Amino acid sequence: MVLLSPSISSMMSLLNICEKYAEAHGLRYNVRKSEVLVFKAGTKTYPIATQLKLCGSPLKQVTSFKYLGHWVSEDLRDGLDIERERRALAVRCNMLARRFAKCSTDVKITLFKAYCQSFYTCGLWVDYTRRAYNALRVQYNNAFRVLVGLPRYCSASGMFAEAGVDGFHAIIRKRCASIMHRVRVIPNSILKTIADKWDSPILGHWIRLHAIVA
To answer: CB within 8 A of 104, min separation 6: which ones?
Structure first.
């Protein structure tokens, strides 16, 4: 469960509501597994963990946490989550190359599409360094080369075109277009506000992906 609040006082109120609900229903929160993250306002930081308590115990303040498989950081940058995806991609590729080395190229391509093109939550990546982004792209290209046994420095665009497989940028554009469509048609009022806010960072990023060739 995640609580979001614009101020310390309102967060205290939310925690108080949770405590009362737990007490009334015979539940107990695990304070050791509960954490608080304060999003930065520019370069300012707010060490407020000692003020926020759950069941009488202060909450541990962290700079990042993993929620539904996606890393969220205090500065709202996506480098940490991109690195998570890069590492996961490397693991999946090595597993496929090891277990299916004797399979045909068609089988390997099918496995690659199934296991190496998910890029979980990539539609949410907005603020990141070019270095982190390129590292994931290179990992994706090398994963395909290793799996199908191509030379290390062969043309990435050429090998994907010949195999009929989407390249890295095509995958990212498709994932972002998909999530943008879902946000626009969903009835949730909060998400509709994001979709209608033309100066929002996430919408601006989605548009740039389809207007500029990276």
So the answer is: none
Q: Is beta strand 53-54 parallel, antiparallel or unpaired with respect to 57-58? A: antiparallel
- What's the pLDDT score for residue 46? 65
Domain ranges of the chain: 8-62, 79-211
**Cβ of 131: how many Cβ atoms within 10 Å?**
9
d(CA 132, CA 116): 18
CA separation for the pair 74, 45 (Å, rounded): 9
Whole-number average pLDDT of the chain:
88
Asked whether the CA dihedral 129, 134, 135, 136 is positive or negative, the reply is positive
pLDDT digits (tens, 9 = 90+) for 61-102: 888 999 999 999 998 899 999 999 999 999 999 999 999 999
Cα 69 to Cα 2, 32, 46, 76, 82: the distances in Å are 14, 20, 26, 16, 12
Helix and strand totals (H; E) in the chain: 8, 6
Q: Which H or E run includes 57?
A: strand 57-58
Cβ pair 74, 37 in contact under 8 A: yes
DSSP state of 59: P
Going by their DSSP bridges, the two strands 35-37 and 60-62 should be labelled as parallel
